[in-house]
Structure formats: C-alpha cells, structure tokens
Amino acid sequence: MSQDNEAGSPRISLLKLALWGAALVGAAGVLYIIAQSSITPRAKGGLDDLTRGEMSRLILPAEAMPAPVNSFQDASGDPVRIGDFRGKVVVVNLWATWCAPCILEMPTLARLAEARKDRDVVVLAVSIDREKDGEKARAFIAKNGPLEFYWDPKASLPFALKPPTAAMPTTLIYGRDGVERARMLGEADWGGKDALAVIDRLLEEE
C-alpha cells in the first residue's frame, strides 16, 4: 500500500501544479478585466465581434495603453523596444522555456509570422528566461522560424505593462499606433483563422 502511494504522489503533485497554474491564469484575467473596467471607456473598438473561437479569451482593454518603454535584447544583444516597430501590427509573446504552454503554442506563433510575413506584422517572442537558460531559449526559437530570438533576462517587461502580468504565456497585440489593442493570458492557436482575423482587422486600420 505504501509503495502505491509513493508511486502515485508525483502524479498527484503534477495535477496540483496544473490546477494551480490554471487558477493563476484565470485569476490574472479577472484582475485585468477589473482594472481595465475602472478606467475610461474603450478608446477604440473594432475587435469585439472577433472574440470567438480560439480568440474567445481575448481581453480588449478599456483604454488603449501605449507599449512600455523598457528595452530588451535582440539576437545580437542590442537593446530594442516595442515602440521601435511603430507603424506595424506588433504581436508580443512573453514566454519561457520552463513554461509548458509556452512551448506548445510557439509553433502557432511561427505560423502567424509566416502567414503574414509580407504584411506589416511583427511577431516578437520575448523570452524571460534567466541568464543560465538563455542559450536554451535561443536554440528553441531557432527551431521555430521565421521567429527571431528576443530576450528579457531581467524579466522586467511583464511588470512594466499596465496592468502587469504574471501569467505565462501572455500575448499582447499592438496596433499601428503603438498602443495595446488586445491581450491573451495563456496558450492559444495564433496560426488559426480566428487569430488571423484579429490581425487582419488591425492591418486595415490607418
């Protein structure tokens, strides 16, 4: 009997971790919605009818907040900011190699980048892995072209957002004007028709 309990305990622990992870993502979404609903009414519309299917959990901010000015690193180690891509639709994915849902959804972000590579769309997969896992993260992104490697080893970007996020992955979509138009907490299929419809709607805006 004791051997069975010992054998089952790792599975129970993994189940508990998964449940806690799901609860954290859900709680973060609720807090985000509460925070945004206390601000001014939504400055821009246009995406409400697209929050369906894979995008049903898409959060539309009450106010379109500008991207944080915090810098992170590109593949060469040079500083870069989200605002450097103003004029394009920018999809920012915050991820880490220790985050299983992040790993699962990354190929879908690669498909999004490939599908809209000839349009004004930039997909920034920004790793928040620590220094010791930087090369591991770089190697993983290399398997998911055409994505390029971006790195925030101090993990400052998630906390610079308004409101900040603790959910991994978190994906943010910025319009051509450089302000946040939508946010997703948790994994999603970014290469499917629902996500592409959101991106294409933003591409139509001046």
Description:
The chain has about 210 residues and is an alpha/beta fold. The chain is built from 5 helices and 7 strands. The protein has helices at about 1-35, 100-115, 135-140, 155-160, 195-205, and strands at about 70-75, 80, 90-95, 120-125, 150, 170-175, 180-185. The chain has a 5-stranded mixed beta sheet with strand order 5-4-3-6-7. The protein has a two-stranded antiparallel sheet with strand order 1-2. The protein is globular. Mean pLDDT is about 85; it is low at about 1-45.
Quick structural overview:
The chain is of the alpha/beta class. It has 5 helices and 7 strands, in the order αβββαβαβαββα.
